[in-house]
TrEMBL record:
Name of the protein described by the UniProt record: GST-like protein
Gene source species: Phyllobacterium myrsinacearum
TM segment ranges: none
Taxonomic lineage from the root: Bacteria, Pseudomonadati, Pseudomonadota, Alphaproteobacteria, Hyphomicrobiales
Pfam families: GST_N_2
All copies of domain GST N-terminal, residue ranges: 1-83
Length: 207
């Protein structure tokens, strides 16, 4: 059987997709690369994805899919039993889409922009200032998510892929304990993801 090929990197956003593929029991192989390092792996990544970003997914038919939200929506269609998204007529679907896009459109880039502040042509002092102000901004963005989070999952009784984003992104800057201090509801949801042992094993490997 053909498999998905997930191009990713330890601890990065590709872990969100690895969790989704695992939950869907979709066949995949993981190719971990140092995505920011110049070299043949990065050259290949840039050929597949002009942004040079992970996750990048090669589908069983050879098509390339990038953008984690697009990958999640594709997997939800291909593997409905995984319940990655509320179904089409579920009233929670609109809020799912709203907050999925908020997380990938507003919060995720703030992390990506701060990963390598040198790329913005700033001197050392300004890189530090830039990173600090991104960190403040990111906290204000997550606060909006915390305010609307339900329990035990973000959408309430039903799991969705948003919970996978929380389980991964709480490990990024400012770090897990600081995140828990600011966002106890989101951290509790992230903890619940580890009730699934297969998902827990992936999270434990990387964080
Ligand atoms: N919108 C993309 C963002 C992906 C992204 O920013 N990935 C980071 C790693 S976590 C990356 O590849 N950064 C390298 C770069 O942007 O040059 C998604 O949701 O998949």
């Amino acid at each position: 059987m053909s498999k998905y090929v997930l191009i990713g990197s330890a601890g990065s956003g590709s872990v969100i997709i690895e969790l989704a593929l695992t939950r869907a029991q979709a066949p995949y192989v993981l190719e971990q690369i140092p995505y920011l390092e110049p070299g043949p792996d990065r050259e290949r990544l840039l050929e597949l994805n002009p942004l040079g970003q992970v996750p990048t997914l090669i589908m069983p038919n050879g098509d390339v899919l990038t953008e984690s939200a697009a990958i999640i929506l594709h997997l939800a269609d291909a593997y409905p039993d995984a319940e990655l998204t509320p179904s089409g007529n579920d009233p929670r679907r609109s809020q799912f889409l709203r907050w999925l896009l908020y997380i990938v459109g507003a919060i995720y880039p703030v992390s990506t922009f701060g990963d390598d502040p040198a790329r913005w042509d700033l001197d050392d002092d300004n890189q530090k200032l830039f990173r600090k102000s991104l960190e403040r901004y990111r906290l204000s963005l997550w606060k909006n998510v915390e305010e609307v989070a339900d329990a035990p999952w973000f959408l309430g009784e039903n799991f969705s892929a948003i919970d996978l984003y929380l389980a991964v992104m709480r490990n990024w800057r400012p770090g897990r304990s600081e995140y828990a201090r600011h966002f106890p509801k989101l951290s509790a949801i992230a903890d619940n993801v580890s009730d699934d042992l297969a998902l827990a094993a992936i999270l434990k490997r990387d964080y």
